[in-house]
Amino acid sequence: MDLGLSAPSEIRAWKDLALFGGEPAFSNYLYVNRPNPVNRPELFERIGQMLDSGWLSNGPFVLEFEEKVAQFLEVRHCVAVTNATVGLELLVRTLGLRGEVIVPSYTFIATALALRWMGLTPVFCDVDLVTHNLDPLDVAKRINPSTAAILGVHLWGHPCDIDSLTTLAKQYSIPLLFDAAHSFACTYKGKRIGGFGQAEVFSFHATKFFSTGEGGIISTNDASLAKELRKARNFGMNEKRMVLREGTNAKMSEMSAAMGLAAFSSIPAFLAQNRANSDCYGAALKDVAGIRLHNCNPCGVNNFQYIVAELDEHRAGIGRDQLLRILNAEHCMARSYFHPGCHRETPFENSIQYELPNTDKLAARVLVLPNGMTVAKEDIQKIGSIIRSAIVQAKELPWQSLDLAGKSL
Ligand SMILES: *Cc1c(COP(=O)(O)O)cnc(C)c1O
User: Which of 30, 39, 193, 368 has the most CB atoms in a 10 Å sphere around its CB?
Assistant: First the structure.
């Protein structure tokens, strides 16, 4: 594909960077993963049907959405829930887990909080520096008689080393679960994420591949688990409204399901744009010293929802947070992600602490750049040019004057 991007992004004089006195490159703010546009005619049509029918929950849209997702993921059962955090909670509770669950620290805090909220002890494990995912060797070291399960996260939509984790889980007869919040439409060895382990949990939060406002889905090939999850999410009731077990209200609303259904026809367009944007970023940042795009899915296809860059501070001559300040001043709201790691966040300060050197390294060097349908090729070229300009002129940037000016305010 010719992207017309063979020339490297241009370099701007550092004085023209917004942080040092220039005009911001973007008049409208660019965010990491603004919600992708939804098919409004289809959504409004469905909202009309929903209002006419009076079914705001327990209606036909959730069933239709579950079926569509199950078909797409090539998995037998999908249980739609309020959001992925609640989905994880419902899953570990319904499985009756007690004790410790091995989980990466380099993930969104919800993964760890869902365990803690259900009375489980997250045992934080280190990740592989190349894949950013659970390091199976480190997982093996953490397994002990109190280990109730392994919860992997397919970070950035890149699948975990599923084969190794499956072998470990079998060897110790413990369930293997996945937080698949990032992984809609991603594959591992030719199969869509969704059917691995005992169950996987997807998120449809605004920043995810597609959104239902708030929403999530638990996918599994285990029929009896799916049946229990359906009851547990609806006050423990079966279809005849008999209360057969403990439960809660974790149902997805019809409004959310309507949004999810309306997003389906756009999936190919989302994938194509994310993919093209990712290629565009690759070209714009080609040969810039010290910055590298993380793109590690040797075993499958990614949804390219996250443009993850790793900055080597020594080679680039500029720190990650300095680069973020420069980008943010241009109204490009790139962000660090999962800093400082779950194990260093307040709720887990007093938990069992292991050394997690790779987690610490990634938390310090990762930045995520804007992507999605609202980010155009020209935007990416500008972002590339800002990053290239900052790094090429790193030695000249007058941080000192800036910090002094900041203090005198
Ligand atoms: C977004 C996210 C969640 C939480 O999803 P919600 O639907 O917002 O509850 C969990 N885990 C990871 C890795 C996420 O990125």
Answer: 193
Q: Are 383 and 369 in contact (CB under 8 A)?
A: yes
Q: Which of 117, 178, 179 to mutate to test the pocket of ligand 1 (most atoms within 8 A of CB)?
A: 179
CB count within 10 Å of CB 14 equals: 19
Q: What's the mean per-residue pLDDT of the chain?
A: 94
Our mutation pick for probing the ligand 1 site, out of 205, 209, 212, counting the most ligand atoms within 8 A of Cβ, is 205
Question: What is the rounded CA–CA span in Å between residue 326 and residue 81?
Answer: 39
Query: What is the widest separation between alpha-carbon atoms in the chain?
Result: 72
Task: Give the global pTM.
Answer: 0.95
Residue 409 has pLDDT above 90, yes or no: no
> What is the rounded distance in angstroms from the CA atom of residue 114 to the CA atom of residue 18?
40
Predicted local distance difference test score (pLDDT) of residue 2: 44
- Nearest atom in ligand 1 to 85's CA: 9
- What does the alpha-carbon distance between residue 368 and residue 132 come to, in Å, rounded to a whole number? 14
Q: Is 240 exposed, middle or buried (0-12, 13-18, 19+ CB in 10 A)?
A: exposed
Q: Is 203 in the pocket of ligand 1 (CB under 6 A)?
A: yes
Atom of ligand 1 nearest to the CA of 182: 15
Q: Which amino acid is at 257?
A: A
Instruction: Set out the domains of the chain in order of their start, with CATH numbers.
Output: 14-33+266-404 (3.90.1150.10), 40-265 (3.40.640.10)
pLDDT higher than 50, residue 256: yes
- pLDDT for residue 408: 44
Per-residue pLDDT tens for 355-366?
Answer: 999 999 999 999
Checking if the pLDDT of 14 tops 90, the result is: yes
Q: How many angstroms separate the first and last alpha carbons of the chain?
A: 50
